[in-house]
Amino acid sequence: MRSSHMPNTRASDSDPLEGPPPHRRELSRRDLLKTITAAGAMAGLGLLTGQRKTGAAEAGQTWQLRSPLRRDGVVVVVRSSRAIVSGRKINQSVVERMVEAGVMRLTGTSDPIQAWRRFFAPDDVIGLKVNCLGAPATRTHVEVTMAIAQAVQRSGMPAHNLIIYDRSTDELRRAGYPINTGSGLRCYGSDQRGYDAEPTTAGEVGSCFSRIVSEDCTALINIPLLKDHDVAGVSISLKNHFGSINNPNKLHLDHCCPYAADVNLAPVIRGKQRLVICDALEVIYDGGPTYRPATTSKYGALLMGTDPVAVDRVGWQIIEDLRARARLKPLRAVGREPRYITVAGDRQHRLGVSDPASIRRIELTAT
Questions:
Q1: Any bridge partners for residue 163, and if so which?
Q2: Distance separating alpha carbons of residues 335 and 259, to the nearest angstrom
Q3: For the chain, which end, N or C, has fewer CB atoms within 10 Å of the first or last residue's CB respectively?
Q4: What is the spatial distance between Cα 9 and Cα 194, in angstroms, rounded to a whole number?
Q5: What does the alpha-carbon distance between residue 313 and residue 17 come to, in Å, rounded to a whole number?
Q6: Coil, strand or helix: which one is 276?
Q7: Four-residue CA torsion sign, 282, 126, 13, 105
Q8: What's the pLDDT tens digit per position in 212-251?
């Protein structure tokens, strides 16, 4: 068995990704650079053809990967009242502006191309971990994933260096993701690629990781949903990696504590995950993880950060606030407190900041 435990590292210089976060402010449409509107999610963007789409600002710019990235409790919450057009239809162009606004604010830059280059090296192969278990009703919105994929490509990354994945190819298909194992933007499940022959141990977990994660990818973007979970309490970024292992069914005892934290200790997760972009356009605050119209809020937000624990703690609070508004009891009162989020920030795990008082929540508005 391969064992893993990686020490915590906290940066202390003045780099925008590693130093103190910038002050909170509102970002209007005028603050954003112009983006390309998606046509049919993938068509016309070179996402299936492998064509590189880069902006004019690319000339003379360099890749400035910072590793390790900070885990200092910074969470950018980007909102837009126009993200959901009508019913459950998502406004693609608004989501693109939300993604762009969030990554620029997180890095403290005014250039989205340079912002993305702070997270990746030019030869990285990036896995985009979505959540499609409840598809088609509940899934990471295709529009969010495609906005991220096209933004990374505009920074100079070839489409073939991106792999959208989850545990099952069929679930991805039911969620609306075009399956592709050929050239260009790839999309398929771990069931198709397979799992490691030997398990990796991390904390109390022993799991075989998807070969997409352990062998194919050098970097990860975690794109979870923000939702209530009938066992774990909430399911956000930490638990999203249950879809990166072969045995998640064995890790739901004690409300997934400490197992959801332990999975994220493994080097293939802790060492490769560069960014979390949580899809909070629709938030299930009770009765999850499946979609329930009566307890789903059109929240219209994305949560972004390099600290998965802080992102999950902010997401947990959003769910508690929505429950209180609906006159529902707190998760602790109904026996579903997601303690694994607190555990993920303890001295044994050091995966990020779990203390709400130490989290810097930056609110933006994209129009």
A1: 127, 186
A2: 18
A3: N
A4: 32
A5: 20
A6: strand
A7: negative
A8: 999 999 999 999 999 999 999 999 999 999 999 999 999 9
Q: Which two tokens stand for residue 306?
A: 């390099």
The three-class DSSP label of residue 30 is helix
Report the candidate in 75, 88, 138 with the shortest Cα–Cα distance to residue 316. Answer: 75
Find the Cα–Cα–Cα–Cα dihedral 168, 172, 173, 174, rounded to 10°. 100
pTM (two decimals): 0.84
Q: How far is CA 290 from CA 120, 169, 216, 338, in A?
A: 33, 19, 30, 18
* First-residue to last-residue Cα distance in the chain: 50
Q: What is the pLDDT of residues 255-306, one digit of tens each?
A: 999 999 999 999 999 999 999 999 999 999 999 999 999 999 999 999 999 9
Phi then psi dihedrals of residue 148, to 5 deg: -65, -45
Q: Is 280 exposed, middle or buried (0-12, 13-18, 19+ CB in 10 A)?
A: buried
The band of 362, judged by pLDDT with boundaries at 50, 70 and 90, is very high
The pLDDT score that the predictor gives to residue 264 is: 97
> Does the pLDDT of residue 326 top 60, yes or no?
yes
Partnered with residue 277 across adjacent β-strands are 304
CB 258 within 8 A of CB 204: yes
Domains and CATH numbers, the chain: 24-50+65-365 (3.40.50.11440)
